[in-house]
């Protein structure tokens, strides 16, 4: 008899992952690290989707996860391209020095 | 076609002329501008002449109406573009189109070398349009349209030499002073609407006739407000001050607008509303007193002026005073008769004065004239006709009309009739004095002008290569001669004239005539003697012993300077009205309201927005991590609201 892992475990794990993502997003200065933390947040969300999909026996959550993965892939492609071009022009990846939109 | 169809053409043709000259005139050659201006004033004159023959024929209707579709129609109140011609309008139309055409012709010669030739004729045609609307109108409102329009044309023409400060100032003065009068006119119209619910002449006057018990009261109020309007337009005390300054305009304009036609609009209006005025003794007495006072005050100022046009300007104010006096004693026909003869001889005098100025290449000061009798004979003889006419010497036109007014004043039942008559009589003597003074100083004695210097351009500056004193071209002399003849014969039909106006003013009390003819002759003789005295003094002072006047002026210096400075009226108005008004405007309106309230509230709103925006723009730091922080905060806030908010607002 397979014992079910309670859903709370998944959710707590997802919350921890998400919080780590938010925290590093706010604290880190390197763009690539920030990028990674975004991926972390997305995957935390994915985990909750899958957990709920399993719990309620509904396929919607899993489909949504695929959408999120597609968007994340596209975002990674565009985002990395932007990062490369920023690095080429400014020779840095420190976000505090990339503040062109300041008034 | 019925005559009514042609009524529309009388104002519209000059308007077409105005449009052509006003839009294309700059590009057209001068001959074409002249042709357009003359053509579009000659045709209305011809139509009026034809109307005259229609209206005086046997079995002719008393009035011709041209009715339009409604102009303003609100529940129970309606005004149309309606024109009416009765005998009174016919006379006014004759003056406006006839004298108007002659002055157009004269202007073609007088203005030949002026800049802005097309502009002048466009304005002149515009004036003809509005003046015809004024006299043709069959309601107060349409009359007011013409009334304002002639004011506009007058303003444009006074300020014709707009590069000169004095000219543009005079234009503004005329406009603003007239506006004070118009204010009275407007209030009168409001009262009319309130009491009659209608602005048509026929309806209003019919209502008054149906209520013989109405006397004074609101009728007096309406009449007095109308008088205020008339004093503005017709240059009477207390609003006469604009007319002398209006002489800054070209001389033909002074002749047409500020002597013959526009300034008589007030008299026309009072005569048109005679039904109303007859019901208000107070208003009539006020009109008579204003008229008599204006006549004598203006005549006294005219005696000491040196500018030839200013003498004529004060003379115009004085003669308009006579017409007011006539209306005030209920002798409307006499007033209109004087209006007619005055249009002839005063237009003539101005045009002749213009011819003198033209001959002297812009000189206007009579102290620099003299001995011109032989040099410009046609001008001299025509001007002589005008001078004799205005002085009231038999058998010239002015004698008949002025004596009619004096006689009617004498026999009127006005409580101060005899005093008014005396004032009128003294004014007649003064008129003779200043007109013959002008005559002697201009045409007799030694030549006081310098013939060589013609490079300097004067007031109405003319061709720089003019050669000495010269007679004017035929376009200027022909109107002079025609008006000169009219000034002589214009008064001969005075008995027929009164009968001609009977349909408008009702039959005058004939009872007095039989007994009065002897009295009338006596009064005429008295006034002729007074005129002769005026002539004698002018002859003595300015022909026989030219130094006498100066010596006398020194002897009564305070009096002389009082009169020479026009009783300080401009200065008094300046101190009592203009300065306080300016102070109020500058301190309260400009300082407190405009700078403080309007600008202040604007500045306050701007400063507030700017201050708030500097605070909020700090959010836009450009720092990505701060954006991320705000984002996270926002998300957290939404979460908090989602989780706890519901319980907050549900219970």
Describe this protein's structure.
The complex is a heterodimer of chains A (103) and B (651). Chain A has 103 residues and is an all-alpha fold. Chain A has a single domain (7-93), classed as Orthogonal Bundle (Helix Hairpins), CATH 1.10.287.3510. Helices cover 76% and strands 0% of the residues of chain A. Chain B is an all-alpha fold and 651 residues long. Chain B has one domain (3-564). Chain B contains 26 helices and four strands. In chain B, a hairpin with a 2-residue loop joins β2 and β3 (77-80). Chain B is globular, with a radius of gyration of 31 Å. Chain A binds chain B through residues 22, 25-26, 29, 34, 95-96, 98-103, and chain B through 617, 620-625, 628-629, 632.
Q: Layout of helices and strands, plus pairs?
A:
The complex is a heterodimer of chains A (103) and B (651).
Chain A: H1 7-27, H2 31-56, H3 60-90
Chain B: H1 3-7, H2 9-24, H3 30-56, E1 64-66, E2 70-74, E3 77-80, E4 83-85, H4 87-110, H5 117-136, H6 140-158, H7 165-196, H8 201-210, H9 218-233, H10 242-245, H11 251-260, H12 265-272, H13 274-278, H14 281-302, H15 308-328, H16 332-359, H17 377-391, H18 397-411, H19 417-443, H20 474-489, H21 494-505, H22 511-544, H23 548-555, H24 557-564, H25 569-617, H26 624-650
């Amino acid at each position: 008899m397979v014992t079910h892992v309670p859903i709370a475990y998944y959710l707590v794990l997802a919350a921890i992952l998400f919080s780590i993502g938010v925290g590093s997003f706010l604290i880190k200065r390197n763009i690539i690290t920030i990028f990674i933390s975004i991926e972390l947040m997305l995957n935390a969300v994915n985990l909750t989707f899958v957990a709920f999909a399993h719990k309620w026996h509904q396929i919607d959550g899993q489909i949504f996860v695929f959408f999120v993965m597609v968007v994340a892939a596209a975002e990674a492609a565009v985002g990395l391209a932007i990062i490369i071009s920023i690095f080429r022009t400014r020779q840095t990846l420190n976000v505090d020095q990339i503040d062109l939109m300041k008034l | 076609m019925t005559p009514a169809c042609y009524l529309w053409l009388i104002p519209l043709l000059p308007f077409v002329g105005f449009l052509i000259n006003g839009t294309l005139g700059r590009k057209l050659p001068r001959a074409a501008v002249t042709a357009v201006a003359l053509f579009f004033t000659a045709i209305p004159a011809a139509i009026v002449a034809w109307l005259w023959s229609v209206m005086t024929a046997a079995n002719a209707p008393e009035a011709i109406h041209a009715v339009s579709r409604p102009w303003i129609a609100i529940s129970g109140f309606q005004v149309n573009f309606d024109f009416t011609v009765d005998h009174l309008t016919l006379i006014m139309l004759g003056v406006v189109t006839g004298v108007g055409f002659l002055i157009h012709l004269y202007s073609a010669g007088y203005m030949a070398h002026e800049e802005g030739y097309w502009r002048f004729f466009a304005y002149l045609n515009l004036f003809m349009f509005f003046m015809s609307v004024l006299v043709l109108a069959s309601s107060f409102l349409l009359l007011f349209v013409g009334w304002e329009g002639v004011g506009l044309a007058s303003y444009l023409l006074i300020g014709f030499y707009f590069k000169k400060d004095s000219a543009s100032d005079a234009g503004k003065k005329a406009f603003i002073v007239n506006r004070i009068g118009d204010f009275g006119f407007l209030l009168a119209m409001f009262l009319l609407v309130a009491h009659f619910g209608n602005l048509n002449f026929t309806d209003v006057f019919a209502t008054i006739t149906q209520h013989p018990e109405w006397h004074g009261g609101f009728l007096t109020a309406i009449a007095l407000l109308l008088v205020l309007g008339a004093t503005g337009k017709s240059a009477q005390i207390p609003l006469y001050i604009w007319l002398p300054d209006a002489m800054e305009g070209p001389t033909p304009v002074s002749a047409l607008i500020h002597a013959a036609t526009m300034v008589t609009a007030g008299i026309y209006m009072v005569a048109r509303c005679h039904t109303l005025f007859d019901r208000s003794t107070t208003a009539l007495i006020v009109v008579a007193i204003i008229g008599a006072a204006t006549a004598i005050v203006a005549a006294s100022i005219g005696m000491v002026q040196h500018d030839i046009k200013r003498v004529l300007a004060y003379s115009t104010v004085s003669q308009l005073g006579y017409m007011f006096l006539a209306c005030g004693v209920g002798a409307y026909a006499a007033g209109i008769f004087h209006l007619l003869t005055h249009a002839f001889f005063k237009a003539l005098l101005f045009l002749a004065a213009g011819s003198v100025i033209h001959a002297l290449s812009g000189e206007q000061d009579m102290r620099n004239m003299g001995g011109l009798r032989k040099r410009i004979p046609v001008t001299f003889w025509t001007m002589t006709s005008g001078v004799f006419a205005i002085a009231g010497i038999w058998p010239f036109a002015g004698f008949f009309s002025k004596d009619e007014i004096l006689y009617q004043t004498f026999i009127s039942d006005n409580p101060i009739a005899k005093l008014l008559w005396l004032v009128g009589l003294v004014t007649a003597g003064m008129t003779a004095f200043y007109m013959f003074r002008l005559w002697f100083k201009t045409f007799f004695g030694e030549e006081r002008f310098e013939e060589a210097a013609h490079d300097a351009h004067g007031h109405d500056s003319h061709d720089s290569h003019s050669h000495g004193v010269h007679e004017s071209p035929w376009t200027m002399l022909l109107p002079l001669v025609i008006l000169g003849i009219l000034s002589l014969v214009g008064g001969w039909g005075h008995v027929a004239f009164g009968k001609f106006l009977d349909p408008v003013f009702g039959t005058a009390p004939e009872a007095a005539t039989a007994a009065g003819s002897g009295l009338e002759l006596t009064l005429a003789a008295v006034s002729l003697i007074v005129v002769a005295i005026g002539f004698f003094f002018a002859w003595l002072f300015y022909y026989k012993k030219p130094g006498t006047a100066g010596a006398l002026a020194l002897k009564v210096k305070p009096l002389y300077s009082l009169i020479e400075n026009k009783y300080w009226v401009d200065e008094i108005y300046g101190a009592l009205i203009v300065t306080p008004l300016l102070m109020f405007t500058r301190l309260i309106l400009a300082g407190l309201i405009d700078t403080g309230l309007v600008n202040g509230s604007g500045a306050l709103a701007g400063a507030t927005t700017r201050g708030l925006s500097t605070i909020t723009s700090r959010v836009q730091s450009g720092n990505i991590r701060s954006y991320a922080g705000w984002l996270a905060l926002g998300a957290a806030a939404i979460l908090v609201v989602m989780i706890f908010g519901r319980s907050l607002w549900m219970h």
